[in-house]
Hints:
By secondary structure, the protein is of the alpha+beta class. Among the domains are: 1-38, no CATH class; 50-94; 197-310, Jelly Rolls, CATH 2.60.120.1330. The chain is built from 4 helices and 14 strands. The protein has helices at residues 50-70, 77-94, 116-139, 182-192, and strands at residues 4-5, 16-18, 23-25, 148-150, 155-157, 197-210, 215-220, 228-239, 246-253, 256-263, 272-273, 278-280, 285-293, 298-310. The strands form 4 sheets. Strands 6, 8, 11, 12 and 14 form a 5-stranded antiparallel sheet that branches. A 4-stranded antiparallel sheet has the order 7-13-9-10, with no helix packed on it. Strands 1-3-2 form a 3-stranded mixed sheet, with no helix packed on it. Helix 1 (50-70) packs antiparallel against helix 2. The model has no long low-confidence stretch (mean pLDDT 80).
Amino acid sequence: MSRVLAEVAGKLLTLLGYDGTDFRNIHVDAAGDLQVDVLSTAFPAGIATEATLALVATEAKLELCRVFLSTIDGDVVNSNAYLLALLTELRLKADLTETQPVSVAALPLPTGAATAAHQVTQTTALQLIDDLRDALDSIGSDALRTMPGLDGATHRMIHVDAQGDTQVDVLTSALPTGAATAAHQVTLQATFQDQAFTYKDQVVGKYQHTMVGDGSYTVLGGQVPDGEIWVLGGIMGYNWSNAITAMYIGLQKGGVAYWVAGTGGVVAKEAFSTTGQTILVKDDYPAVYFNGCLDGDSLTMMYNGYSMTKAT
C-alpha cells in the first residue's frame, strides 16, 4: 500500500508525484516554477557532439593549411617542405596515431603508493624508535637502576619482594667454620646412641598388704624391666586401718632400701607422699616402709610417673 508523504493543501490545488513507492509533493521554487532534475535526454537531430566538434576543428586546421599553402610561391621549396611536414604531423595528431604530450600535474596514484599521510605515520614511528634509543643510551650505564642477571643465555631482572628485598635461591653455599655436616651428625648420633633416653610410656602402680601380727612391713611396687628408666613424680603410702608410728618412702635396690622421704606418726586413712622425682633403673622397686602396724592392718602404696628407653 503506497503512502502519501505530503502536506495536502486542497484536493484541486495539490499536485503529488509518485516515486514508485510513495506519493510526494512536487517541488517548485519561490516563484512557483517547477524544479526538475534532468536525468537523461535524447539529442535533437543534427546536434553537435564533442566528437563532431573535434573533427570540425581538425578539418578547419587542414583547410587553413591548404589556403595558406595555396598563397605561397611554388619556388620556395624549403618552405613548402616544412609546411608539408607540418601538414603530416597535424594529420597524425588528428588520427591519434602519434603520442600526445600529457600534463602530469595531477595523476591518480598506483595501488599501494605512499601518500603524505603514510609518510607522516612512518616518520612518527621512526621518531619513537629514535627517542627509545636515546633513552636506552641514557640508562645503559646506570648501575643503580638497572641490574639484570644472566641465566646462562638470557638476561633477566633480579627479583625482589614487595619491600624490595632480593629473593635468592641458595643453590650452594660454603659452610661456616664448625658447622654441623651430615658426617658430623652421624658421629654425634653414634656418640649418644645408648646414652640418651626418650619417653616410652606412663607408669602407674598400686600395691596392698594385710598385716599378719603386729610389727612393721615394707610394701614393694613393680620391678623396673631391662632397658627402661622410671621417673616417678610421686610415691604415696597409707594405713587404712590404724595409726602408725612412722613411714619411709624410697626404693629398694639389690635387697637394700634407700629412703628419700620419711615422717613420724600418721593417723589412719591419712596419706604421706614424696615431693620430688624418684628415678629407678633396671631391677629397682618403689618401696614404702610402715612402722608400728597392728595385726590385720590394710597397708597401701601407690606411685605414678613415666618410663624412658635408651635412644637407638
